[in-house]
Design a protein that fits this description.
The chain has six helices and 17 strands. The protein has 324 residues and is mainly β. The protein starts with a helix and ends with a strand. Pfam families: Fibrinogen_C.
């Protein structure tokens, strides 16, 4: 029985705020109790507790020893230093631990496609996690997922259903997002950047007409938004199928690609006047636009929802911008 106990490994699990929020584990070999390594430690320090000693084992530290009697902590950069074959010097109170990392069993969904791949097939509001837990911007984000259109798994970055949510918002509100995903909302420019960063995503724009006709749409197969340091500059390319004209790339004075985002309080457009203030909403304005989905609902001030098929607000009964 004693032999079996001596060969048991003690597993102590601590949560470490590392890049992916891994579980950091320390394996203690009880056969090496009351012994220290013949190899010199990289650091030898006082620690009031095991937890204090374990938290010191960072930046290349592979194993450590803690003495519960003297409250001393010895750190090693080589895993072999804590191998029982090297723990041959007797000294009461010591126990050695080897560090290793495991991934958590739960993988949080990055976007609606992740949810779709995990069996979610019903369109509706879901929670996604665009940022890693170690990121200062980390937070769960509620979004509307279209799980039925063209293979499903589409994340709505913009959605307007009933016009109850005002899109005449300032820079910070567009940065962080606003509204309710089940009706009208903007996911937030920070989230759009994070979702598109380093990925090859498509954009699907839809407009629902007021007269009850079929939904109009346009596909673009390259969609990317830079970070706030570049004012959320939009990169758009490779137009695809759809019955909406391609006015985002090829309309003079209204191109979206290469445009910085503008709001009434941060004017980045190419016009001599403030397009966002004039047309009451944030957007990637050029001079100013030939397509603009964030204008005031059912108002004469909504300028060119989609030229020339939808030129006034009274033509539009809903919009969405979906990415996948």
């Amino acid at each position: 029985m004693t032999t079996i106990v001596n060969r048991l490994h003690l597993l102590l699990t601590l949560i470490s705020m590392s890049k992916a929020m891994e579980c950091q584990q320390f394996r203690a070999n009880l056969e090496a109790d009351n012994k220290i390594s013949t190899q010199a430690p990289s650091d030898n320090l006082h620690a009031v507790s095991f937890a204090t000693c374990s938290r010191s084992c960072i930046n290349g530290c592979e194993c450590f020893s803690f003495n519960s009697r003297s409250n001393m902590c010895r750190l090693y950069i080589h895993r072999s230093s804590c191998d029982p074959s090297n723990m041959t010097v007797s000294e009461a109170g010591w126990r050695s631990y080897t560090i290793f990392e495991i991934q958590p069993t739960e993988t949080l969904p990055l976007d609606c496609k992740s949810l779709y791949m995990n069996g979610k097939r019903k369109s509706g509001v879901y929670t996604i996690y665009p940022w890693e837990r170690s990121d200062p911007n980390y937070r769960p984000v509620q979004v509307y997922c279209d799980m039925e259109t063209e293979g499903g798994g589409w994340t709505a970055i913009q959605r307007r259903v009933n016009g109850e949510e005002s899109f005449y918002r300032n820079w910070t509100e567009y940065k962080l997002g606003f509204g309710s995903p089940n009706v009208d909302y903007w996911i937030g420019n920070n989230a759009i950047h994070q979702l598109t960063n380093g990925r090859n995503l498509s954009l699907r724009v839809t407009i629902t007409p007021m007269n009850g006709g079929s939904v109009s749409f346009k596909m673009y197969h390259q969609f990317y938004v830079f970070g706030e340091d570049l004012n959320y500059t939009l990169q758009l390319a490779v137009p695809g199928n759809g019955n909406l004209d391609d006015v985002l790339l090829y309309s003079s004075g209204g191109r979206l690609t290469g445009m910085q985002f503008s709001t009434f309080d941060v004017d980045n457009d190419k016009s001599s006047y403030n397009c966002a203030a004039t047309y009451y909403g944030g957007w990637w304005f050029d001079n100013c636009d030939y397509a603009y989905l964030n204008g005031p609902w059912l108002s004469n001030d909504w300028h060119n929802p989609w030229h020339s098929q939808y030129t006034t607000a009274v033509d539009v009964n809903g919009t969405s911008m979906l990415i996948k």
